[in-house]
Amino acid sequence: MLQVAQLIADHALEKQVLAKQAGLKPAAFSRLINHGEFPKRLAKDTVKTQVNEALKAAGVLETSLHNAWEVVPPTDHAQSEITTTMLAGTAGLTQAALTHFHLTHRQAQQLFPRDLDTEQYYPITGVARSQHHENNIVFHNIADLIRDVCEDGGFLGIAGEVGSGKTTSLAHAIQQLDDSVVVIEPLGAILDQENDATRINVATISKAIVRRLSKETPKRDKEERMLQIQRLLEDASHGEQRFVLAIEHGDTLHIQTLKALKRLWELKGSKGKKKGKRLLGIVLVGQPELLEKLATIGKSAAREVYIRMSMVEIMPLTEQQVHEFLDLKFQGIGKPLADVFEEDAFSAIHKKLTQHEFCYPQTLQNFVIHCMHWVAHHGVNRGITHVDADVVEAVK
Length: 396
What we know:
This protein is an alpha/beta fold. It folds into three domains: 3-65, 434 Repressor (Amino-terminal Domain) (Orthogonal Bundle), CATH 1.10.260; 77-118 and 317-394, no CATH class; 141-301, Rossmann fold. Helices cover 48% and strands 9% of the residues. It has 18 helices and seven strands. Strands 2-1-7-3-6-5-4 form a seven-stranded mixed β-sheet, with helices on both faces. It is flat and about 70 Å long.
């Protein structure tokens, strides 16, 4: 990680705003700040200058920028502790926390659900940004977006950093589908992104579709195999039967594989109720690089296809959204936020989670549970009854 990432966290600056001011795409800006990966289309010095100017415009002193582009030394044990706290799930609130905050077991289960089979733990709302409406950052139910693909045969790309909840949202959405939807998940060992032999490729995907729908042997010729897939999808689409192809690690797919996926998505029925309708919905899940790959395909393909592609990025929560998200959760059990939090807690929570690149609903819920535990088990004896900025700082 670069020192500039620490500057952004210390000043509680919004990355999407800085990215826009620096003339960079949010995904490219995120890779730059989080991983030190500079955009290939621009010279490094140009990128540094643009970002520095954006930071100065946001109130960062020029003297603070002298070492901004140096690499931060490897993280220490404390960093590992906070990362584990934010990413790890919990067993729910302890009895001491329930008693202290006057919560019933039922309220706690509704507030922080644990069972993905019956409750959507990750998250009730996910923050997603439409690629076609870059300035429109709104709350979406990510699982609902995935279900929509199953309904209308859409093509959806979901991107997000580690811990943003994208993979769990996909799993939850699949669990909630009824029997009329057949999910096809290619099994490919993506062990080495630089080795084409280990990636999910066109052949892997095609074979998965053919074998999921029939006992036939996949055709060797590409064109024959495409016609085979179209026939099998159409023959299997009896009644209300629908099909969706779900692929994780979409950012590791080769550009040619993504182009082939677009062609699969364009397959339409030729008879009966399916005539003229898409036979296959597609959901890709991956790191932010996925969005840039999909955009590249869209711009080189037919304009109407690009417009139909839905590309969203799970964005970190802003300070206001941290407050709104928790308020939404606690409203659901009829409990005011003031019964649990002091007003300075929300800013402190946002700053701490942002500092460690984990300000997402999933990790926010985990961290809040740990804060409530700390108050119940350590704070009461010190006269601390609510989660405040000092409690947030104390939780490791």
